[in-house]
Amino acid sequence: MSTDKEKAVVLLSGGLDSTTVLAMAIQQGYDCYCLSFSYGQRQTVELDRARENARLMAAKSHLVLNLDLDKIGGSALTGDIDVPKNRSAEEMEAAIPVTYVPGRNTIFLSHAMAWAEVLGAFHIFIGINVLDYSGYPDCRPEYLAAFEKVANLGTRAGVESGRNYKIQAPLMQLTKKEIILKGMALGVDYSRTHSCYDPDSEGRACSRCDACQLRLKGFQEAGLVDPVVYQLKGWK
């Protein structure tokens, strides 16, 4: 009897959420093929964390693709737009933030779909979360359902194999506290993750951008201390 594991492509940014998703996919018994992107983002330190975690967590393979999304621009993460700082929860939820990267999840999932088709994998994991990123249009359940339909209609594997692609977003409805506790139970070392949108030249987190504030709030609510290094002391 074959002992081959089911394959899965895991979108791995190097952040808290995607690293937790990788741990979950491994725990569920998948052979994980991690996919990351160098897309012109200002927080390139996250790619170092992605490479480190893919290796230490025994991913079957880790592919890093280069995309010049900074040439398109339109985002604080890929251009000269200032990253918002010290915003309240109400301000974060009021409108789609300037840290939204136009088309990013669609571009990432399209590449993941293509690699999955080549690998013979029918599961794609992504660490999006609708509670923390309610302003992002490509982090909604209906968006994932639509992309899943595209994958099954627009690929040879989807049409001919008799199987369906499944886009798995296990963190979709979890709070940051719940994500952290889930990851801790699975042995995730969060000191090897990066969330900050605007780190300094040494890779230290700013503590003031939306991503940092959501992360810090999650650790505080979980009764834990965030193990990453921050630029400023006394951020609470």
Provide a compact summary of the structure:
This protein is α/β, with parallel strands linked by helices. It has helices at about 15-25, 45-55, 70, 90-95, 105-120, 140-155, 155-160, 175-185, 210-220; strands at about 5-10, 30-40, 60-65, 125, 165-170.
Describe the structure.
- The termini are far apart.
- Helices cover 38% and strands 11% of the residues.
- It has a five-stranded parallel sheet with strand order 3-2-1-4-5, with helices on both faces.
- The chain contains nine helices and five strands; from the N terminus they run E-H-E-H-E-H-H-H-E-H-H-E-H-H.
- It has 236 residues and is of the alpha/beta class.
- Helix 1 packs across helix 8.
Task: Determine the N-to-C terminus distance.
Answer: 55 Å
- Count the strands? 5
Q: Give unreliable regions as ranges.
A: none
CATH superfamily descriptor: HUPs
Radius of gyration, taken over Cα atoms and rounded to an integer in Å: 17 Å
Number of domains: 1
For the structure shown, list the relevant keywords.
236 residues; alpha/beta; Rossmann fold; 9 helices; globular
